[in-house]
Amino acid sequence: MSVHTAPAHPAVRRWGSLVAAAALWLVLYRLNLPFWDWLIYDALGLSADSAAGSALHFFGYDVVKITLLLIGIIFLVTLLRSFMSLERTRALLGGRREGVGNVMAAGLGVVTPFCSCSAVPAFIGFVSAGVPIGVTMSFLIASPLVNEIAIGLLLGMFGIGPTLLYVAAGLTIAIVAGWALGRMNAQRWVEPFVFETRLRGEIVDSTAGLTWDDRIEMSREEVVTILRKIWPYLLVGIGLGAIIHGWVPTGFFTTYANADNPLGVVVAVLLGVPLYSNAAGVMPLVQSLYGAGLPMGTLLAFMMSVVALSLPEMILLRRVLKPQLIAAFIAVVATGIVVVGYLFNLIL
User: Fold this and answer.
1) Domain limits of the chain?
2) Helix/strand/coil for 115
3) Where are the beta strands (DSSP E) in the chain?
4) Residue 190, SS3?
5) What are the residues facing 321 on neighbouring strands?
6) Could you give the residue ranges of the DSSP H alpha helices within 37-147?
7) Does residue 296 contact residue 344 with C-beta atoms inside 8 Å?
8) Paired residues of 190 in beta bridges
9) DSSP symbol at 133
10) CA 50 to CA 55: how far, in whole Å?
């Protein structure tokens, strides 16, 4: 006699699938670094100190990490967005509250220790959710620029004074630059597809009345849409970062960005933009250059430009932002960094 089991309730299947997907995402994210360590250094036998080993490890690890971040953040933000209209979000964080929104976004960036490229998925999610572009820019600047890793390393290497000045300068740049970009009506320079909410291929004008299945399907479709549009830029951006990863311009730096050059801070910023690293990765270079006698302001400007204005980040952002906004973003942030560099050279 056969026994027939009753089919699982739709809600059980739905939440069970979500829990399983979240668990798989977490496992993949946690195994990403060990996998690439094993593949590049053990299976292929490449040295971590070699250019090939460093570049291949950098490329594989970052592509997987940023893809997973895109999947997770875009899914969650779209799911939350289905309960809240764009207009309501803008009303909460825009208008008269925009200055407060910039401060809040910069503060959120401090507690999310992303490198510049890793912050892009969160940036896309916030913009698509209707957070004003200027507020979101404050997060995009602060997240790689001021975080607990940078603070801890600076504190250990240079003491409390330079660390507090760096934190204050980084937050000021993030808040003021975001506010300035918001005043430029920068929303018009965001690609239109970012603001579109679709369900089964059709644009959704209102999320009222959607079922949980609709909201989950909408989130899944948004992930697929964003990944399809951004993956070439992701590969090019990270590939470029991998090629230049580990390039240390110490000789050029000490020649052209020394204390005797009045344009030393500008040179430091121009050198920092093509590089791609987080604060932990660039700090040893900063320390060695400091030991060689370069001014603290010049070095902090260099570090800021590396972590907040990387070329791979700009390539990734190009898929969602128009060239006018990227140019304005670079100009406003670079100007702030240069001013801070010269100010630090005067007082330190």
Assistant:
1) 12-243, 250-347
2) coil
3) 198-199, 202-203
4) strand
5) 190
6) 51-81, 86-93, 98-110, 119-128, 133-145
7) yes
8) 321
9) H
10) 8
Helices (H) and strands (E) in the chain, counts: 15, 2
pLDDT tens across 173-203, in order? 899 988 888 888 888 888 877 766 666 656 6
Tell me the per-residue pLDDT of 66-86, one tens digit each, with 9 for 90 and over. Answer: 888 878 877 887 787 677 655
The two tokens of residue 99 are 């200055």
Angle formed by the axes of helices 119-128 and 212-244, to 10°? 140
Q: Are 138 and 145 in contact (CB under 8 A)?
A: no
Which tokens in the block code for residue 141?
A: 């600047």
Place of tokens 């006018």: 324
pLDDT in tens, 3-42: 555 555 677 888 888 899 999 999 999 999 999 999 999 9
Question: Mean pLDDT score of the chain, rounded to an integer?
Answer: 78
Contact 64, 32 (CB under 8 A): yes
Burial class (CB within 10 angstroms; exposed 0-12, middle 13-18, buried 19+) of 307: buried
With CA atoms as reference, report the closest residue to 338 among 246, 244, 267.
Answer: 267
Whether this model's pTM surpasses 0.85: no
The structure tokens 């597809």 sit at 193
Q: What per-residue confidence (pLDDT) applies to 197?
A: 62
Task: Return the structure tokens found at 42.
Answer: 């053990």
